[in-house]
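Appendix B. Extra example for self-study. Work through it before the problem class; the solution is given directly after the inputs so you can check yourself.
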Amino acid sequence: DAGVIQSPRHEVTEMGQEVTLRCKPISGHNSLFWYRQTMMRGLELLIYFNNNVPIDDSGMPEDRFSAKMPNASFSTLKIQPSEPRDSAVYFCASSPDRVGGNTIYFGEGSWLTVV
Amino acid sequence: AQTVTQSQPEMSVQEAETVTLSCTYDTSESDYYLFWYKQPPSRQMILVIRQEAYKQQNATENRFSVNFQKAAKSFSLKISDSQLGDAAMYFCAYRSAGNTGKLIFGQGTTLQVKP
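Solution. Structure tokens for the complete assembly:
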């Protein structure tokens, strides 16, 4: 069974450019999470969806960040305009929504560098 | 709000020896899940082991086992017969029993394995 698939794996962009990160969760999983990892702040939850509906977006840093989940098999995280402080590893993760199915599985991450 | 604390930023162990990584958490909930994730230099988040709070028996996965002390809110990870491939950062994480709950991470412990 395929895991959580993220793209791109690596992205280098110039400040001010738009960045779009993509995620395909594990088939059948109802919950999807976007995390950000930096040295300073560790692993932070940005937003999570359940059944394609955003449940908690309190971790989204500011209006420059937006996330969508148009269907059960696809989600995007967009940064516009990007800034050097957005440089981080962005993880997408998914979880099945059933009794006992509380394990969250992570993608390999998207390494973003904003110069 | 729930918190997870890993008080050991770095640990080292000799190959083939045993090491224990500490984790404490704070919650007012009675039902929840606890996890240990491994993050090697590739940055992928790999599930090592999970524990259901309602189970008294400590979880075990091959060389990995936990010491779950619910009253003390402690959840340590023991790695037996350490191998060079165990070198990584290890994160302790908490998730509420509700299936749509987010995963809350500790700060991480970097484990070095010496040959």
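Self-check: Chain B is about 0% helix and 55% strand. If your reasoning did not lead you there, revisit section 3.
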